[in-house]
# Entry
Amino acid sequence: MGKSLVMCGFALFFFLGLAAGAFGVELTADTVTKEGKKTVQGKIYVKDAKVRVEKRSTPLYAIVRGDKGVLWQVNGAENTYLEAKLTPEMKPFSEEKLPGEVSRKQVGTETVDGHPAKKFEVSVKRGGKTETYYQSFATDIAFPVKVANANGSWSVEYKNVKKGAPDSMFELPKGAELDKSAVPDVLGGH
# Structure
């Protein structure tokens, strides 16, 4: 697979993919990401500051290691990976307070995939822009089960949430080689 596929696919998926950093949370869930008319299904594994995000039907996935301050983009088909220093701009929306949050207002409650959730309108400053999101934060599992851009252009929802995530999901595959010929493009997308 080409380097551009790895970089472009993960730039978009990572920012839509809501993963990790919520200490004390340990879960596995299916993800449903919608952007316009396109729907992408995947899987997320979360254990404290470690997160793994996968897209279905592709050997590409991302591992966030908050404990090490690193993001790995893994190409399972080639057993290679790209590495980037984890910065605040790269962190996915996984805690109740979003990175860069400047305001929050509860706008209701709802049930998302069987989980009672408080729905918030949240403004986030990223770079020179302020963006508005709707976040549904499940009160029973202390995790954001849905986040959507206020303009309706994209959303991510977690389904079939189960407790637990094996430690092996957050490690590089045995024998994986660092691809030094490419730099991860994790700042593209949303």
Summary: The chain has a mean pLDDT of 82. The CA atoms of residues 62 and 73 lie 5 Å apart. The longest strand covers residues 101-112.
